[in-house]
Each structure stands twice: as structure tokens, then as C-alpha cells.
Amino acid sequence: MEDHIDPGKGRRDGVVIPNVGFMEIDRPVDPLQILLVSGEEIIDNNDPVRPLRQKPAHQGRTNEPGAAGNKKIRHEFDLGNPVSVCHACVSETMNYLRGSNTLPTVQVTRQGADRLSSGHPWVFRSDINPETEASPGALVRVLDYRQQTLGLAHYSSTSQIALRFLGAEADLAARIAAAQRFREQVVTDSTAYRLVHGEADGLPGLVIDRYGDYFAAQFLSQGMDRATPETVAALEAQFSPQAIVARNDAAVRKLESLDREVRILSGSLPEPVEIHLNGFRMEANLMHGQKTGVFLDQRENYLAAARYARGTALDCFTSTGGFALHLARVCERVEAVDSGAAVLAAAARNAENNGMGNIDFKDADAFDVLASHASARRMFDIVVLDPPAFAKSKSQVAGAIRGYKDINLRALKLLGPGGVLVTCSCSHHMSEAMLLEVVAEASLQAGKTLRVLERRTQSQDHPILLTVPETHYLKCLILQVV
């Protein structure tokens, strides 16, 4: 802290931020509470998404492309936009404060410190000292049991995951830029992909999916929820998006005492958004579609399944037709099943937009369709099973095992020698070993011998960290009847 004399206002405690100005603070402050406003002054704003109420411009400095070497510029604010902030100055302010001692602290136990040193970013509530000045979602300095600084983390006041570790620094904009560079290496022939995959990109609690010039974000922790203005600023500075949507309707937000909502954070959004996925024209509904619009994690598995496809195909739980479209390229006929008129209408439009006239979409329960085809002794050359998560918690695993065995048994009855089964599980609590065992039991009961063609996981834009098993959730087995 330092003193600052301001004529007419007297002495104020605070810090001077280089190139930005004086920030008045009288307590440890979370930098995510700060918005920059008129002139050289910065206010401590307890509501980070409240519309700015000061003068609509201020002077700052920038290193933005096209600017002549850190020159002064005038930053304009949109008073009606609750997340309209100065990109350059927000970044400068955040980086300055994160290196300061103004942050509140949270001390972890030896067990909590050991967990962090093992490479996992979560510290549970039982492994922290409950005495802290940190407010919900605050950026905090993490201290070990010897009072040594371990790094920075987001603090949650209600979740059992009390800390989500960010490391020695927490430059959100830099990590988003690094995430984009990685996607440029692994994503081809697609304008839609996952840009940020939470912990796997060093940003626990944040998911960002890119749909061309449109972005959908999920802020799944108190810390990332408070980082909404900074996230929007980073995306606007790096990508100049047409729109950014907050898909904050995930159930996990309830564990953080956060409201579930869907809203547009910036820009304007057409409905639907057109994307390209593996060369196909598809539509994505960012406000109401599955996850943040469409399923992006199966993108590479779509191509893998098509490599083994021929003849007739059955695609169960087709959603917007991802597997069905890819199979239709190489199969004579594809039957695509799901329940829900809206999702099937979108799938049908995707087929029409790509000139696919060999897909029959059926609004029905996939379990019932499989049973009906088995009774009628219908046979297919390839069957795809991509059901929703059967086990969303450990307590549901036993029931999920029964469900996966039942659906795979029904599918195997529709396949003859040489037939291919593509079976998936997106339940994190259902390991690959468990899925393999379940399918093996189903094959024995069906009297089929299976060879493993491929054991796959989610697309590479959903990276997996070896030390964070929660980042690996999707399993995809491609099997062939011998």
C-alpha cells in the first residue's frame, strides 16, 4: 500500500499502476473486481459486470498492432454493454496486481500441497485453512503449511473444490492465445472446435468453444464467473468475434452457488450459426443446442468410423447428425435415430445442405429401435452407439454398467460377421477398462467374437492431461465381429 494525495479528496490508500493510474484500495483486493474508468482513476467495483457509470473514455497506453510503440490512445466505452472494458488496460492492471502482495491468501495443508505438486490443480475444502479473507471467486495467493507461496488460484466459497490452481502466474489472455496456437496444430478442415478445455489448458473452470467468428463460453466456477469481463476482453482483443455467448446453463454451477443462465455477452448472434466440420456444412445453435451448440468432441471419431463403414448403417443418438453425415458418404443407406423433433430437424437440414439424400431420420427411443430391429432380425453393416452420459456421478456407475451392457447387447444382435460396432461413453466415471469389460460380457452373451480395431478418445482439441484424469472423459471403441 502507499499514500496518495489528491486535491479536494485528501489522503487515500492504494497503489499506482504503471501507465494506468492510481487504484484506491483499503484491503486485500481481487483484481477481477476492478474495471478501469475515466481519466487515470480506477475504481474497485464489487460487481464486475455492472455497466460502467463514469465518463465513457480515458487515456491509456497500448502495444496493439498498428500503434506507434506504446503510444497514448483514447479508449472508448459502451455504457450500455456490461462487459465493455479497455482490453489493453485490463491486461496491464491484472498482470500488475497478480504480482503484488495485495491478494488475499489461502493456506493449504501438507496433503493439499502434495496434491498440487502431483500435478492436479484441485485442492479440496478439507485441505485448506478455513481462515481467509478471500471472497467468493477471488484470485488468491496459495501458501503451504510453512507459509511459502505456491502460486495463484481461484477460491470457491461453496464448492468442495475450494481452490483451482493457476500456477505461478494467471495471465488469462496469454493462456487463451497459447490454446489457440495448439488448436492450429491439431484442427484441420473445421471452423468449429474447442478453444479452451478447462484444466487441460491451464484455465480450470473455463470452457470456450469456437464456431467460426462466434464463441460460446462456460464459466463453471466462482473464479471464472468473476473473470467474465477479462475473458470477453481477451477474446475480443485476439479474435474480434461477431458475438460471445455465455452458456452458463450447466448443472455444475449450482455447486458454486451460481445462477444458471444463457445470455449474449457481446455482439449479435444469428440463429443458427453456420460452421464447417470435417468439410461438412453444419448448423450450430449456440443459445439452445447441445453443450455449447453441437458435439465437438467426436469430430475425429466421425472420420475414424467412416473408414470402416459400408453397406447399411444405424446411428443411434444421432443428435445433429455428426456420425450419420460421415457414414452417408460411404454407405448405401443410413438410419439415424434420436428423440426430439428440434434436434432431428437440425440434423435433416444438415443432410440437405450437404446433398445427403440417403439418411432416414427417425424420432424414437434408441433402446426401443434396437429391440425392434433385433426382433425383426434386421441386420446392419455398422452400428454406432453414442448415448448421453449414463453415469454423472460415482453413485450412478452400477446402473450405468447395466445400461451400457444392455444397449451393446442389443446392437451386437444386429451385426453379422465383418460387422462393425462403434460404441462410446462420455461418462468420466466409466473408465475405458470398465467399458471394455462391459462390451466383452455383452459379446459373450450375444455369441459374438469381437476384435478391437481402434481404441479412441475425444478429439485433440479436448486435450487430456496425464496428471488430471478428469480431463479424459470420452471413450470410443471401434470393434469388428469376427
How would you portray this structure in words?
- The protein is of the alpha/beta class.
- The strands form 6 sheets. The chain has a 7-stranded mixed sheet, with helices on both faces. A 5-stranded mixed sheet has the order 1-2-3-5-4. The protein has a 5-stranded mixed sheet with strand order 8-10-11-12-9.
- It has helices spanning 87-98, 110-117, 172-186, 222-226, 228-239, 299-307, 322-328, 341-353, 366-375, 397-412, 432-446; strands at residues 2-6, 10-17, 21-24, 34-36, 41-44, 57-61, 72-76, 105-107, 122-124, 139-143, 149-155, 161-167, 192-197, 206-211, 214-219, 243-248, 261-267, 273-277, 280-284, 312-316, 333-338, 359-363, 380-385, 415-425, 450-457, 475-481.
- The chain has 11 helices and 26 strands.
- Residues 1-85 have low confidence and may be disordered.
- The chain folds into 4 domains: 15-98, no CATH class; 105-167, Archaeosine Trna-guanine Transglycosylase, Chain: A, domain 4 (Roll); 172-273, RNA methyltransferase domain (HRMD) like (Transcription Regulator spoIIAA), CATH 3.30.750; 297-481, Rossmann fold.
- The longest helix has 16 residues, at 397-412.
- The relative contact order is 0.08.
- Helix content is 25%, strand content 31%.
